[in-house]
Amino acid sequence: QTYRRRAGRLExxxxxxxxxxxxxxxVLLDVDGTLVVHQALPWxxxxxxxxxxNVTSSAVHSSTPLTGWYSACKAALRQLNDSLRVELVGCGVxxxxxxxxxxxxxxxxxxxxxxxxxxxxxxxxxxYDRAICRVGSAQSRMxxxxxxxxxxxxxxxxxxxxxxxxxxPGADLLRLADRVVPDRVWDKAVAAVSGL
Length: 196
Description:
With 196 residues, the chain is an alpha/beta fold.
């Protein structure tokens, strides 16, 4: 989490966390942890200014096999963001979420570790083997995480920030697919790619 302070007061805040599969601790980290930023709301409301920026994921638009908890946590955070933004209309406080695509961060190594752990207790070992291989090979096509930091800075300093800012590899494509591809078609395509 990062915060920008002006004259000793919290003016804006940004939160991001990543959960890959461990349910309860992951939900607490991904959803509850980013809500710490909201502790600045009383000051923001009193001064009728401020920005809250949370980093969700392009995964809010689609879930793939073995990523359900990650997608669910990021979707929950996005919905909390959307609700808070509406609650604060006219109060001078902007609420924005950044929806990055794939970036080279530590989450992928943690994901591979968790997939390997879960592989030992499944009857569908081949599904986990393909997922581990895909995650490993996809990292070379992922973006530089500094782009996410620049996107946060952009929305913190923009005159009129967007409600949602999609950035990086795959972000716009997943949003488009979510809007135009029928669920049955998406499910079959993802299942085929996943080897299910």
